[in-house]
Amino acid sequence: VTAEKNIPLVRPDNLFVADPLADAYWGHVVAPEHYAELRPRLHRMGEGAARAWQLAELADRNPPVLETHDDRGDRIDRVLYDQAHDRLEELSYGAGIVALKYDPDFMSRHGEHGHLAGFALGYYFAQTEMGVYCPVCMTDGVARILARHADGAIAKETVERLATTDPDRLWQGAMFLTERQGGSDVGANIVEARQEGDRWFLSGHKWFCSNVDADAVLVLARMPGGTDGTRGLGMFLLLRERPEGNAKHIVIERIKDKLGTRSIPTGEITLEDAEAHLVAGEGEGFRLMTEMLNLSRLYNAVASVAIMRRAVLEALAHGAEREAFKERLWDLPLWRTTMADLVAEQVGSFVSVFEVVRSLDRADAGEEEAKKLVRIMTPLAKGITGTQAIWCASEAMEAIGGNAYIESSPMPRLLRDAQVLPIWEGTTNILALDVMRSVRKERTHEALFARIDAAIEGGRTIAPDLAATVERRSKELARGLESAMAKDIGEGQREIKAWLEPAWRVLELSLLLENAKSPGLRHPFVAACRRLLARPLSTGRAGACVAPHLTPTEDTLLHAAYAG
Ligand SMILES: Cc1cc2nc3c(=O)[nH]c(=O)nc-3n(C[C@H](O)[C@H](O)[C@H](O)COP(=O)(O)OP(=O)(O)OC[C@H]3O[C@@H](n4cnc5c(N)ncnc54)[C@H](O)[C@@H]3O)c2cc1C
For the segment 186-200, what is each residue's pLDDT rounded down to a tens digit? Predict the structure, then answer.
């Protein structure tokens, strides 16, 4: 940086190398023999994703366009993509974000970390490109539902095509639920299923269809003569080209002009007697869809911590070189304290989101307690981190200043892309209601509190004072939940929404303590824990907390988060 220009050009070479803390975390939670194989994959993805920055920018600036008719005026409804988009697909699917989990060879060796491997790769990819990460998510979701719940040759072939790293064989997935009458209220859906012998046909309009030209789509439709509400919905597998020409019965009305995630087409479609395969009928269709939704919610949470990480990285790299008032930004107390809060929030959410991922691995292996944990932690994670990502991208933009507001900086795209995270896959209100349902019906809070207690115990010797405070907070949290559950339905809903954030906070604090047992994580995790204890709400202004005792945490956190 020359003195007159004083504008650092931030272009990380490798997002994995730039983040020694994440490396130390994976090394702590993954057994050494497994990490020896996973680490080079993450390193490669870190490099690929860092280099793909310009591709992401191009794909965003040249969003997909719909070509509705051919030269003769016949409908073709084809989506045209920028080449940059195709290269991003090769990077993500090619690295095995989806494929590894379905690869018998990989799973025979690393089965206990199947989700961790996929989501860790996705964590680096999504730091560069959140748009394409959405179809990746849905491709995984469709494959998961079919692999676990469908039989027959079509399902088998579809899973194999969805879970390939070969771009020429790859099929992508999507999920079409939302209709004009409403997205949260899925039970209001009216798209119809019609049966003819053993064949099924779907008709009606779907209003939000991301990855609109996907090859394999799970669609909710009302069963013939079916009951009202979600019970009457069946789940169908809609293949664009099976039977041949089926795409003609899927009319893409338009592609929506969106605020963010512009690299992927979110469209509106009309199904005109499109042939589909029944996956689950009345009473079961919606239940299976919630399983797909929950996986998507976890993807959403991973994308959120990825955006936060990229925002923090950009700001720290800028502040390490930018000077103001004859000092580096890094050395200005108020700038440091702002950034230390951002780092602490990112690190806290990172360990908590990956705790959900690790629990999903255990749940898939059949652990009952882990199933309950996943059930409550997934909506909790999605409900908090989406909003945090917007907050973090916005604060980091401000911490960089005016240059971050300009489109040549990655920050505007990060902020725009982040805005969808609290909306799709269930808004925060809907997730609050989901947490409440899981507590009422399945007593999932017992598993959550047992996990928090165990984590506090695990970290007690590292920082007994912190452990005691977190324990107190956890007890308050339990009382808060009891109070919400005792209220009438309306009041209880209000209280449960307010409960989400303190619950996430206590989870973060306990997990930071537990993982601080690892020497490589100890100082930054204890420092993050101290800061988060002083910040009651995760989206309160960064650096606005007057707490002189926190000053020593700043150096630790900033250096842990930026090695440059
Ligand atoms: C970019 C993008 C891509 C999308 N892609 C897809 C896709 O691929 N497939 C798909 O099926 N859908 C998709 N969606 C739709 C998305 O899932 C819905 O927008 C979302 O579920 C919210 O539904 P809605 O927009 O109909 O809002 P509504 O359901 O009308 O909700 C409006 C507001 O009311 C609140 N609300 C609703 N019910 C309650 C309640 N009981 N208590 C308290 N508050 C309530 C909500 O929290 C929300 O704030 C996409 C949306 C976007 C923006």
Answer: 999 999 999 999 999
